[in-house]
Amino acid sequence: MSQLGKMATDDILLPSNATQRPRVEERAPYNAQKNNPMPGVYRSRLPNGKFTNLMQVMFTDFCKMDCHFCPNSHWVPRKRFGFKVDELAKTFNELVERQTVQGLFLSSGVAGTGSKTTERMVQVVDLIRNKYKFNGYIHLKVMPGTERNIVEAAHLLGTRLSVNLETTTVEQMNKLSKMKHYQRDIMDPMAWIDELQRGPTNGAIGQATQFVVGAADETDLDILNRISQLYADWELKRVYFSPFRPVRYTPLEEHPATPMQRTNRLYQLDWLKRVYKFSDSEIKLGFDQGGFLPLELDPKQTIALENLDAFPVDINVANRDQLMRTPGLGPVSVQRILQNRRRAKISRWQDLALMGVVRKRAWPFITFPGHRPEPAKQLRLDNLLNQERKTRTDGGTEHLTKNRAEVTRETQASILADPGEPFGTQTTLTPTPCGIRSNCDGCALYNTPGHPGSTKGKVRYTPSTTFQKAKQPA
Ligand code: SF4
After folding, report:
1. Cβ-based burial of 335 (10 A; exposed 0-12, middle 13-18, buried ≥19)
2. Sheet holding 28-29, edge to edge
3. What pLDDT score does 76 carry?
4. Reduced to 3 states, what is the DSSP secondary structure of residue 45?
5. pLDDT value, residue 467
6. At 153, phi and psi to the nearest 5?
7. Which of 152, 344, 449, 453 suits a disulfide with 433, CB 3.0-4.6 Å?
8. Kindly report the CA angle at 404 between 401 and 405, in degrees rounded to 5?
9. For a substitution probing ligand 1, which of 70, 113, 209, 249 has the most ligand atoms within 8 Å of its CB?
10. Which secondary-structure segment (H or E) carries 375?
């Protein structure tokens, strides 16, 4: 249980420091040992925002396949484990009865054939549903190469099904495995799941998939193109991104690991697409010439910097789409702004903060009475944009292998070294609250009204009367 629970954690990954977190099935190890000492139990967030404990386990970590990135592949010489069908069903039932878990995430290596393995996993779920009368959440992985009749059985018993896509194209899959057939083993089962979901039979709702980022040297643009096609053609609920980690004994053991920050950026990109409804052409503004997202800025900020003509937006008159495209504003804060400004004009940063606006990111991009970004601020934006462009052009794909701290240090150093910098010599690398400069000393904007780095006149905040009025129901 311990070994198979640990191996299953590689299947769904969550960036711990993602600014915009995925809503479903975040992987967050359940740390409260005294409350829940079981290995293989993970705390997951559901679409309604609540948390639940899932038993996350592999049926077996034996796999006959040759995926170059996988610790379960046949390349790795180590002892393997596996459950018997009734043993796993019984173990899960005991955990449910003890109220340790409320759901199951079941994955596996390919033991024998994909169909044979998925069939045995379906038998486990069948026992859980019919013998132990469990009606809760079960996420079932469908193994590559599973035949249609087994996929249909899985559809009837699971709550959610997923097949791991791993990479974006046939050519890239050929780099990662000589045994997996991209179309026949992966795309076909995914197409059947989609077809079954749309059919009249009650069954699993919502298909998900997962990419191993960086293993096949694909670009972020390749990933965007693939997920756009999946969202357009199928009712795909979610895409998960797992950073490539070299595994000893595999052909990719010398390949550099993918920084976690890259998967964070991809989760943000996915969020822009699904929640903020950015079009692909807008998202592509955020890519560099090599087809990668910069690691040092979130994609929404990069896109705004590439599209400065659209800013600043007037917070009191801008429409929903304009607000959603403004850095520092999310779906919740936009909704609150739209509701509150119907009753009273918004004219204070503090009111915006109460609505959930992130001032540090939003201040150069918005106007309202008493706050208008000055031309100098625009200059600074341009300066930042130039620096970003320089970093991307200079680094190319290479900067993706650097960790975030390195990239941040380099960006700061390049800003400090730039002779065109109009704000005097900088001596320290302490980030400023505005997030743009490295040091407030000598900055022309320091302590100007509305500037987030201002230390002057800080008073204890009380909401304005207009905002208090606005908060009252109509
Ligand atoms: S089929 Fe899955 S478990 Fe087997 S080697 Fe490939 S990625 Fe790993």
Report:
1. middle
2. 28-29, 41-45, 51-58, 103-107, 137-141, 160-162, 207-213, 236-243
3. 94
4. strand
5. 47
6. -65, -40
7. 453
8. 120
9. 70
10. helix 375-395
| CB atoms near residue 61 (< 10 Å) | 22
3: three-class secondary structure by DSSP:
helix
The length of the chain, given as a count of residues: 474
Per-chain mean pLDDT for the chain = 79
The token pair at 469 is 């009025």
Q: What is the CATH number of domain 2-284?
A: 3.20.20.70
Tokens for 217?
Answer: 């040297």
What's the one-letter identity of residue 440?
A: C
Yes or no: say if 108 and 142 are a contact pair by the CB < 8 Å rule. Answer: no
- What are 332's two structure tokens? 């919740």
pLDDT tens track for 168-216: 999 999 999 999 999 999 999 999 999 999 888 788 788 999 999 999 9
Q: What residue owns the CA closest to ligand 1's atom 2?
A: 109
Q: What is the pLDDT of residue 378?
A: 59
- Strand, coil or helix: 237: strand
Q: What does the domain layout of the chain look like in residue ranges?
A: 2-284
Is the CB of residue 354 below 6 angstroms from any atom belonging to ligand 1?
A: no
Q: pLDDT-derived band of residue 373, with 50, 70 and 90 as boundaries? A: confident
Distance of CA 100 to the CA centre of its chain: 27
pLDDT tens digits, 248-265: 999 999 999 999 999 999
Residue to probe by mutation, ligand 1, list 63, 116, 242, most atoms within 8 Å of CB? 63
Task: Give me the half-sphere count of Cα atoms (radius 13 Å) on the Cβ side of residue 345.
Answer: 8
d(CA 467, CA 465): 5
Q: Hey, CA dihedral for 77, 81, 82, 84, is it positive or negative?
A: positive
Measured in Å, residue 267 CA sits from the centre of ligand 1 at 23
